[in-house]
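Q: I have two molecules that I believe assemble together. Could you output structure tokens for the complex as a whole instead of separate predictions?
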Amino acid sequence: MLSIGIDGGGSTLRVGIFNENLECLHLHEIPETANPSSIGFAETEKRLRFSVLQTLDEAGVDFSSVRHVGAGMAGVAQNLDWLRNVLVSVLPQAEITVAPDYEIALIGAHGKRYGILVLSGTGSAACGINASGELAHSGGWGYLLGDEGSGYWLGLEMLKAVARAADGREKKTKLFVETLANLKISDPDELITWLYAPERNNRQIAKMASLVLSAASHGDSVANKIIESGADHLYQLYMSVVKRLNFADPPVMFAGGLLSSETPLRRLLMQKIGLN
Amino acid sequence: MLSIGIDGGGSTLRVGIFNENLECLHLHEIPETANPSSIGFAETEKRLRFSVLQTLDEAGVDFSSVRHVGAGMAGVAQNLDWLRNVLVSVLPQAEITVAPDYEIALIGAHGKRYGILVLSGTGSAACGINASGELAHSGGWGYLLGDEGSGYWLGLEMLKAVARAADGREKKTKLFVETLANLKISDPDELITWLYAPERNNRQIAKMASLVLSAASHGDSVANKIIESGADHLYQLYMSVVKRLNFADPPVMFAGGLLSSETPLRRLLMQKIGLN
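A: Yes, here they are, computed for all two components at once.
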């Protein structure tokens, strides 16, 4: 009796096959989003189907031996039924459990259904589950509506700062020079051609966050302002979850590329929360 | 001897045929953008070609009688050569003059190449031409990078406020209720489905600015905060142009749907500039 676990984040889709002892027998990982807010429901369904079937094929597992499927995905909190239906159509004999990505990330980080999780990867969100089992989340509205403090947001704030500096509305610090060098452009006006190119995707913008983080570590004032604002937004997400769950002194974990390693963003956020 | 004038804004493409006295013989207007930052260069070229040929056809004018073409378009400031080449290929016998949309808007508003123009339509920008003929502009970076204080920006800020209110990070004022009613959704979570639908376009988001403007007129505190911030951003654009042109007491005109009529945004911006 086998189980399949699916973790669909803003930048990576993982499908794993597990035995009865929950040992991973095979892991299939593709560096692509499966977030319907970014790529649409039709494309998400295609990627999901294809990845599940390919994982079974790679592992030499027949689909009839899969009894349980657990899937946590970004951008589906409002469309869990849709996700369930897609999975039912691929694995009709299995028991299907679906959840938003932040819920599985919280349980994964704390090892139980309890505590607070602040997430900053391609997108951003906070969520919590209190002692009564109540769940609340904040953020996760996608790249146009929110995702403040996420990799995408930091990358875009950096590009906005470059645009303002070109207009004479912001200081031209080292971050300005480094951004143009990184994009291999000489004139800030070319930012427009770069950013609105049809092939541009959110992941490429989110990857630029590393430039802001590194510049902030070296004391760049514009980068520091961006990181400070990002940490403040993440703290607001955290606080709104704490308040709504009446959570006193909750255990807090971090997830996502920008908080799971030692970054200036993580340091600042920990300070604000009072974790150091 | 005839001339063609082309005005491509964020939401409307106009092609006019003029006689030697610059009287408009025929005007072709389509409610679509021709901004390559929004729809790409290939699609812009297609729309432009088609509109010019259709205008000539409607007016019963043979293309060989067109001697001058003047085109001002959004999103082409960095790609004026591209625009010139497209027009040369359609009307090879004509003399072609190309300019960014804000430059023709400034000349149109002041009736001469002198003064400052602040523009807020689907996008936003400021530009100016001083007594020495120097031109400077600020803003106009498109919907992802800037356009603060524009219709698109106001509409999106409204949706962001609704998202924050759903998270408990913002007050639920009348604007919250009216936005959901306007979008015909009952749950704020459905905002995501609405906003990221493949058919959604910037013009539809920009049109929602009228809700914020009307709520602000009725004293809605969240709407007022958005309008105040938008006016402040437009003032920053204005100031950066004034400074770079060393402009003392410049004549100022407004353009675009959000500033060309009496709106709370226009009133606030005029106050900041000291025009009343």
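A: One point stands out. Chain B touches chain A at residues 36-38, 40, 75, 77-79, 138-139, 141-142, 144-146, 156, 159-160, 163-164, 167-169, 187, 189-193, 195-196, 198, 236-237, 240, 243-244 (CB under 8 Å).
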